[in-house]
Automatic annotation (TrEMBL):
This is fumarate hydratase. The keyword NAD does not apply. It is an enzyme of class 4 (lyase). GO terms for cellular component: mitochondrion. It comes from Neocallimastix californiae.
Length: 483
């Protein structure tokens, strides 16, 4: 029978073995480091995990960037096979990249945005995961190297900006433009449906001359239409890729034609048209295209803020506000006031707009700080750009589905406001002049009478003339000139 101390030694040894079995030993130029045995990443990823504990899971590199890295590394491997990369290794890399693109390996990309400003740690995270998975796929003892094979003819300085553009273009085309288009179509449909409903216009939040509810909504749909055109106009610059510039833009360690071929292959894999950047120095040192895209999103958010605020203002009530339109009632609005319903979709959209404004400021500051040959704010730029794209797309889909398509005009209320509007007097300007028309309006307001009654009382016109000249239907557009 063993002495208790010997038993304790055995227990300690077994625990030590168990702990060691949970890890594998990886190495880089800094030496060896323990990595969880069930993870495909290697030493540099593990060091980044230990050195940059910032932000937690909410700060993890966006999945769109990781998938874009999969596309890039696959394209590079295919092209590199034509430039001497071992075919067996190259094909294994391609298979591993397909798993990155599909999202199967997403749990193996834990790094946060707040790391080196070039995104080197994420580039190496991808290189290590792809290399280890490719080695596993080969299964013949051949080791795929993260730098020599997966990162062949590449640098973090050109791969990360390339994935920034791939991710941005993909999300804009796949998510943002369809969402904006749906919102535009819904607003345009409202414009057509409401085109014969004449209402009191308002400027400075005061009564103004009439227009139709359809005309009012046509302004909203046109704002969104222009927003789509703005973001589309940025796509040619976002479609230029930095790959092939390597470290400082010179293309060191690449072959002639590598950049063009990789861009063509990325286009083929992604389904979106990309080209090699004509000037790699600009592509590495600056991110003006991303700043421009963020600016377009900022303008779109500005439009959406105005639209959402107008819609909730027109729908305010139900008894003590404008109440000109009825908004869909989706959920209870108050924990204390029974029966209260709030314009929650408008509120959600306006909060998204506020966030986009903040994101744009971050992108602007980060974009302006590209020093010499390399901007080192890349991760935070793409994080905020993608965040804005996703937020606007999601908010537009929600706003369209849960608010805009269900808007109903309150024609009774609209008619009562119109009939009581003092600004209908504007139609009298060409007939009796501005000063007399103003006196009619002030008299009607002071004595709480109609415009017609005030005009007749002041002997400025007859009742018949008033009916002829003041017709809201004739006040919603220009008239033909008659000599």
């Amino acid at each position: 029978m063993k002495h208790p101390r010997e038993q304790n030694d055995d227990t300690h040894q077994s625990k030590k073995v168990a702990v060691e079995q949970k890890y594998k030993i990886e190495h880089d130029t800094f030496g060896e480091i323990r990595v969880p045995y069930d993870r495909y990443w290697g030493a540099q990823t593990q060091r980044s995990l230990q050195n940059f504990k910032i932000g937690g899971k909410k700060a993890v590199m966006p999945e769109a960037v990781i998938r874009s890295f999969g596309i890039l590394k696959k394209a590079a491997a295919i092209v590199n096979m034509s430039f001497g990369l071992d075919k067996q290794i190259g094909e294994a890399i391609v298979k591993a990249c397909d798993e990155v693109i599909s999202g199967e390996l997403i749990d193996h990309f834990p790094l946060v945005v707040y790391q080196t400003g070039s995104g080197t740690q994420t580039n190496m995270n991808v290189n290590e995961v792809v290399a280890n998975r490719a080695s596993e796929i080969l299964g013949n003892g051949v080791k795929v190297h993260p730098n020599d094979h997966v990162n062949m003819s590449q640098s973090s300085n050109d791969t990360f900006p390339t994935t920034m553009h791939i991710a941005a273009v993909t999300e804009i085309k796949k998510s943002l433009i369809p969402a904006l288009t749906n919102l535009h179509d819904a607003l345009e449909n409202c414009s057509k449906k409401f085109n014969n409903i004449i209402k009191c216009g308002r400027t400075h939040l005061q009564d103004a001359v009439p227009l139709t509810l359809g005309q009012e909504f046509s302004g909203y749909s046109t704002q969104v239409e222009y927003g789509i055109k703005r973001i589309e106009s940025v796509l040619p610059r976002l479609s230029q890729l930095a790959i092939g510039g390597t470290a400082v833009g010179t293309g060191l360690n690449t072959k002639i034609g590598f950049d063009v071929k990789v861009a063509e292959k990325i286009s083929e894999i992604s389904g979106y048209k990309f080209v090699t950047a004509p000037n790699k120095f600009e592509a590495l040192a600056a991110h003006d295209a991303c700043v421009e895209a963020s600016g377009a999103l900022n303008t779109i958010a500005t439009s959406l803020m105005k639209i959402a605020n107008d819609i909730r203002l027109l729908g305010c009530g139900p008894r003590c506000g404008f109440n000109e339109i009825l908004l869909p009632e989706n959920e209870p609005g108050s924990s204390i006031m029974p029966g209260k319903v709030n314009p929650t979709q408008c509120e959600a959209l306006t909060m998204v707009c506020c966030q986009v404004f903040g994101n744009n400021l971050t992108v602007t500051v980060a974009g302006s700080n590209g020093h010499l040959e390399l901007n080192v704010y890349k991760p935070v730029i793409i994080k905020n750009l993608l965040d804005s794209i996703r937020l606007i797309a999601d908010a537009c889909n929600s706003f369209t589905k849960n608010c805009v398509v269900g808007i109903v005009p309150n024609e009774k209320k609209i008619k009562s406001y119109l009939e009581n509007s003092l600004m209908l007097v504007t139609a009298l300007n060409p007939h009796i002049g501005y000063e007399k028309a103003a006196k009619i309006a002030k008299t009607a307001h002071k004595e709480n009478t109609t415009l017609k009654e005030a005009g007749v009382k002041l002997n400025f016109l007859t009742a018949e003339q008033f009916d002829q000249w003041v017709n809201p239907k004739n006040m919603i557009g220009p008239k033909e000139y008659k000599a």
